[in-house]
Amino acid sequence: MSLYLNIEAGEAVETSIQATGRNPDLAASLERNLILTTYREVLAAQGKFAPHLSLKVHNEIPLGMGCGSSAAALLAGVHLANHFGDLGWTPAQVMTEACLREGHPDNVAACALGGMTTSCQQGSEILTATCGLDLPWRLLLALPGASLATEKARALLPDSYSRADAVANIQRSSLLVAAFALNRPDLLHIAMRDRIHQPYRSEACPLLPRLLPLLAAADAPAGIWGAALSGAGPSVLLILDPEAPTGPVEECVRQAAEDSSLELVQTTISVPAEVTY
Ligand SMILES: Nc1ncnc2c1ncn2[C@@H]1O[C@H](COP(=O)(O)OP(=O)(O)OP(=O)(O)O)[C@@H](O)[C@H]1O
Ligand SMILES: N[C@@H](CCO)C(=O)O
């Protein structure tokens, strides 16, 4: 998604953070801030000195909503270490370090590469491919009032699945990649059906059972191509036809959500973020 964590950094006499955008309180603790702890930990592991930094941070990524905010913060911390510690790592090495720290590549790869990114981890190697760059599809993110920690969302999943569920999801996830790679939004309503995580996470993500039925509702406004949990939830991501008017869709989502603290964020499929040293 085209929601970014923007950081300007320079060496300084004292460490400081000036934060704007979402959750500026993240700047309150210089000891526990994930960007800074990552920066320091990476350099310590390499036996390097970590200069004090002055950071200007502008965050557009909702926290604890399944939008990958921690991946962006980890990637930023590793980039800072790479630059200010003169590590000489390639962008791929920076991304791999951030993926290993996050424990999976799902969000770090998307954040580092942009577009619709597929990724997997094989031992300590991260394999990625990006497709669906430059698709003009519109995204609408429905954010509930309460956040959900990824660990909790993961604990809701069963240990094993039936063969039928596994087969159905493998087919649909392959179809999903084809939909993005070939610009085939007509495939999305089938490709985004899930039997592996959404049924189990619904209880902790109340927007999902309210918004998924819009896909099949006869009276829903035109232009809703697909809907799914964003990451591990609790927010829901809708993929919309850019030609259809957004007003009626937003109104219908608000009514279906029955959540007075609902926030709707319009966005698009991202292009790679710029990192300049
Ligand atoms: N810009 C930031 N600066 C400092 N710390 C951050 C920043 N963004 C995220 N974090 C840290 O990451 C935590 C959120 O991580 P968590 O994995 O729970 O949610 P998420 O990454 O937003 O969602 P998901 O991984 O499901 O997409 C925050 O509580 C905070 O500690
Ligand atoms: N894809 C991961 C979430 C990534 O934060 C999951 O569903 O658990």
Give structural notes:
The protein is of the alpha+beta class and 277 residues long. The chain has 2 domains: 5-131, Ribosomal Protein S5, domain 2, CATH 3.30.230; 138-268, 2-Layer Sandwich (Alpha-Beta Plaits). The protein has 10 helices and 9 strands. The strands form 3 sheets. Strands 7-8-6-9 form a 4-stranded antiparallel beta sheet. Helix 1 links the parallel strand 2 and strand 3. It is globular, with a radius of gyration of 20 Å. The protein starts with a strand and ends in a 9-residue tail after the last strand. Bound molecules: adenosine-5'-triphosphate and L-homoserine. Adenosine-5'-triphosphate binds at residues 5, 26, 33-35, 59, 63-70, 73, 107, 149-150, 231-232. Its EC number is 2.7.1.39. Residues 177-245 form the GHMP kinase C-terminal domain. Keywords: Amino-acid biosynthesis, ATP-binding, Kinase, Nucleotide-binding, Threonine biosynthesis, Transferase. It comes from Granulicella sibirica.
Could you give the topology of this structure?
Elements lengths: L4 E7 L4 E6 L12 H12 L7 E7 L9 H16 L6 H12 L3 H8 L2 E7 L2 E7 L6 E6 L6 H6 L7 H19 L6 H4 L6 H4 L5 H5 L12 E6 L6 E5 L5 H12 L5 E6 L9
Parallel strand pairs: 2-3
Antiparallel strand pairs: 1-3, 4-5, 6-8, 6-9, 7-8
Calculate the mean pLDDT score and round it: 94
Largest sheet: 4 strands, antiparallel
Alpha carbon gyration radius = 20 Å
CATH top level assignment of the largest domain: Alpha Beta
Shape: globular
Bound molecules: adenosine-5'-triphosphate, L-homoserine
Low-confidence stretches: none
Which architecture name of the largest domain does CATH use?
Answer: 2-Layer Sandwich
Number of separate strands? 9
Q: In total, how many domains does the architecture comprise?
A: 2
